Amino acid sequence: xxxxxxxxxxxxxxxxxxxxxxxxxxxxxxxxxxxxxxxxxxxxxxxxxxxxxxxxxxxxxxxxxxxxxxxxxxxxxxxxxxxxxxxxxxxxxxxxxxxxxxxxxxxxxxxxxxxxxxxxxxxxxxxxxxxxxxxxxxxxxxxxxxxxxxxxxxxxxxxxxxxxxxxxxxxxxxxxxxxxxxxxxxxxxxxxxxxxxxxxxxxxxxxxxxxxxxxxxxxxxxxxxxxxxxxxxxxxxxxxxxxxxxxxxxxxxxxxxxxxxxxxxxxxxxxxxxxxxxxxxxxxxxxxxxxxx
Length: 293
Hints:
By secondary structure, the protein is mostly helical. Helix content is 75%, strand content 2%. The protein has a single domain, classed as ABC transporter involved in vitamin B12 uptake, BtuC (Orthogonal Bundle), CATH 1.10.3470. It contains 11 helices and 2 strands; from the N terminus they run H-H-H-H-E-E-H-H-H-H-H-H-H. Strands 1-2 form a two-stranded antiparallel sheet.
């Protein structure tokens, strides 16, 4: 293929990557923005979504589409419930202290990994894609399922925006993010908001895991890359800044797609890391974050 088709393919791949990455990173950014904690176990919630997609598919059997829809509906709910329980059993006990929660979520990361390793095993397992079709462009055919992933991710991002901007729970979340003490004085149940935000962030990561696993394989160590890329996106966009997270996800995702097609995925990760270093030097609060006075 000539340069034009190669570039078009790179942009397609980058858009799919960007939308899934935005879905994953948005959960991490939301948790930091509202709770002011860094969740090191965020990638494991992504991994749990992928593993549950395999498990639900095996349990349902028959139609891959039915198993996928069940996983997409129940997987995030199960992972969200696990996150809420983790908040109650672990994070609340350390009173959401920023340093303590880093250690606590590192411990949670290893606990989840070992539980999955014990009951799921160490081998990577494939998940059948729910639909098989190709979209024909003038130069090549492209996976229809990847376009389904992109569309579903976009719908989930829109749904998240509606929840945050148009619901009472979203109002509580925004009030807690702006001023926790004032929100509590006006009757906002801050501890309950924390639990729901932690569960909601985990559910977004799990939904991304369900969507991605038919294009990869489910294994107990697959949470590392989503965690690192999510941190890169959140740091570039600004910690806790949801708009910045979305913009940074598209910058990183499309850049990753273009560089991966023309050069190599490893080079794309190196350049993303260098971009983080540059942003931290020029604007430590991120491109859209608030700078210290």
